[in-house]
Amino acid sequence: MPTDEITAAAAGTWTLGDRTVRRMGFGSMRITASPDRDRAIALLRRALELGVNHIDTAAFYVSPGGTLRVGTGPARYATELIRAALSPYPEDLVIVTKVGFGYDPQAGFTEAFTPAQLRAQVEENLRRLGLDQLDVVNLRLGRGPGAVPLVDRFGALAELRAAGLIRHLGLSNVRPEQLDEVAGIAPVVCVQNNYGIDAYREQDPFVRTCGERGVAYVPFFALAGTGRETGASADQGEAVEAVALAHGVTPHQVRLAWTLHQGPHVLAIPGTGDVAHLTQNIAAASLRLTPEDLARLG
Ligand SMILES: NC(=O)c1ccc[n+]([C@@H]2O[C@H](COP(=O)([O-])OP(=O)(O)OC[C@H]3O[C@@H](n4cnc5c(N)ncnc54)[C@H](OP(=O)(O)O)[C@@H]3O)[C@@H](O)[C@H]2O)c1
């Protein structure tokens, strides 16, 4: 496909509350690993040139030491790279961030539970991004039940939303019953969970439930799958390879197209620090899989 025909717009749009996003977005976790700050900034600008208007981030995406545990030298925050690259922000850009987790160079990963801790994380995101209001904030849950009940944590964010610091709320790393638990406190515009062709498919019914409720379902690690932070496996699997060969595309593009075929409410946020991969990923917005492809991919 000629580069000037590649556009995130080809996947259509979805609404997060009153904000409209193109379904092919960008995950910013990997840019902190870029050895070169200018390269990360150029990549973010290129994403927007290619039509991306939905960027996922977190204040704890920071190297060295943050989520990817890589890098040396001065701290490089994804949120600050986004600000350096894209501020003043275009009107239509929607930046989605998450709280509930933090990273401290001394303490490592920390979970934020209390209203004061959550507020501090919201304020950190506002400061690093240079914003007065965050478009969407996901409450990111950890593995255990947490020191403070979910409804109280979500309630604390609902108060910050009422105060105008947050426009819309979402949930991350959640089970279906947890979506029910927070019903009535504030609307949930998106769910962000680990999900992909061969990762956590027990969530298939949850993906459908989100669609029925008008909630966006945003898989993370749609490429990396269960490889998580270590990245995509070299072994893509026979079915993915075969469909890629049939369409003359890469296995990663098949994975992203499959993601987008899971429903109009399913959004893609592939992450990369490589501009050639970025271009390929966005080109997948226009890749249409046949019913036979989808059956083969399971
Ligand atoms: N809510 C949560 O708890 C949570 C957790 C983790 C992540 N996230 C969000 O989800 C986003 C997506 O996750 P992710 O960035 O870790 O993983 P991903 O998009 O599933 O995969 C990224 C991996 O695939 C490689 N890759 C990307 N495009 C490629 C291509 N076209 N060809 C070959 N390899 C390719 C990347 O390496 P290269 O850099 O070399 O391209 C990297 O190793 C994150 O950026 C973050 O915003 C959310």
Structural commentary:
The structure is a single chain. The chain has 298 residues and is α/β, with parallel strands linked by helices. The protein has one domain: TIM Barrel. Helix content is 34%, strand content 19%. The chain contains ten helices and 13 strands. It has helices at 37-49, 78-86, 115-129, 150-162, 176-181, 204-212, 238-247, 251-260, 275-283, 291-297; strands spanning 13-16, 19-22, 26-27, 54-56, 62-63, 76-77, 94-99, 101-104, 108-111, 134-140, 166-172, 188-194, 216-220. The radius of gyration is 18 Å and the shape is globular.
Structure in a nutshell:
The chain has 298 residues and is an alpha/beta fold.
Produce the secondary structure layout.
Elements: E1 13-16, E2 19-22, E3 26-27, H1 37-49, E4 54-56, E5 62-63, E6 76-77, H2 78-86, E7 94-99, E8 101-104, E9 108-111, H3 115-129, E10 134-140, H4 150-162, E11 166-172, H5 176-181, E12 188-194, H6 204-212, E13 216-220, H7 238-247, H8 251-260, H9 275-283, H10 291-297
Parallel strand pairs: 3-4, 4-7, 7-10, 10-11, 11-12, 12-13
Antiparallel strand pairs: 1-2, 5-6, 8-9
The structure holds NADP nicotinamide-adenine-dinucleotide phosphate.
Pfam families: Aldo_ket_red
Organism: Micromonospora orduensis
Protein name: Aldo/keto reductase
Number of domains: 1
Could you give me the name of the CATH homologous superfamily?
A: NADP-dependent oxidoreductase domain
CATH top level? Alpha Beta
Number of helices: 10
- Basic shape: globular
**Which ranges are low-confidence, i.e. pLDDT below 50, for 5 or more consecutive residues?**
none
Distance linking N and C termini: 27 Å
Largest sheet: 7 strands, parallel
Keywords: Oxidoreductase
InterPro entries: AKR (IPR020471), Aldo-Keto_reductase (IPR050791), NAD(P)_OxRdtase_dom_sf (IPR036812), NADP_OxRdtase_dom (IPR023210)
GO molecular function, one term: oxidoreductase activity
Pfam family, one: Aldo_ket_red
